[in-house]
Amino acid sequence: MNKLIAIVLFITATAFCQERKPLQGKVVSDGNGVADVFVINKATGLEIKTNAVGNFTIASKNGDILVVYSPRVTIREFAVSDKSFAENPYVVEVEASSLELDEVVVDGSITAEKLGIVPVGQKQYTPAERKLYTTGDFKFISLLGLIGGSMPFDPVLNAINGRTKRMKKLVAQEKRELLLEKLHNICTATEITDTFKVPEEHIDGFLYFVIEDKDVAAHIDAKNESLAKFRVTELAQKYLALIKEE
Fold it and tell me: Does residue 114 form part of some domain?
């Protein structure tokens, strides 16, 4: 009986320790607080917006991933740890996005292929992917090529200084941003609130939740908007259930 009680108490204590609690944080860029950016908990779908000086409070626990998102800053992810709660506030550093110009309407029929810039059918890379290709991905077997003089030395240096790893993260981040932009064209804010019944204040959190789904990404890359929207409809139910639990 005593052993049973001890087990129950242990399970209860463990569950209590895993409960989410308010995390006090601040989003900064170049040392200054950044206002009106979204902080999203990927585990729960909960999203909040920073105040005028960049401060925020969001329910979290050790192991949760927080996403900082805004058209004005580069999307970044931060892992919550015990140290995060010890800091007051927990400071997350972001970088400002490139300056946004006024909207320009581009004729979609004009492509690099039609202009003769690249051969028809050739895979086209994003800026980050081109940098990653230039950086190279060094493997141990490539050392033979280096010794024989058939391999450039840059990939070796990049492997040592971690540049390749950083470039891979940049490529993944760029892909998420491009996917988010395409999703905006498929699902309007009005459709998200009226059809999917997602509250207006949760639109950005919902969109970020959706682009993490591999099926949605595959359908969008295949330019199959019908299947993409069908999958979004399914994910909307899951997302609504998540925010209802908060």
Answer: no
> Cβ distance 246 to 59 under 8 Å?
yes
Q: Where are the alpha helices (DSSP H) in the chain?
A: 2-17, 82-86, 127-135, 142-148, 154-161, 163-186, 189-194, 203-211, 214-221, 225-245
Question: Residue 27 falls within a domain, yes or no?
Answer: yes
- Has residue 13 been placed in a domain? no
Give the structural domain span for 70.
Answer: 20-93
CA dihedral 234, 235, 237, 243 (to 10 degrees): 180
Domain count, the chain: 2
Q: What is the pTM of this model?
A: 0.44
Tens of pLDDT, residue by residue over 102-145, are 455 555 555 555 555 555 565 555 655 555 555 555 444 444 45
SS3 labels along 37-105: CEEEECCCCCEEECCCCCEEEEEECCCCEEEEEECCEEEEEEECCHHHHHCCCEEEECCECCCCCCCCC
- How many CB atoms neighbour CB 80 within 10 A? 21
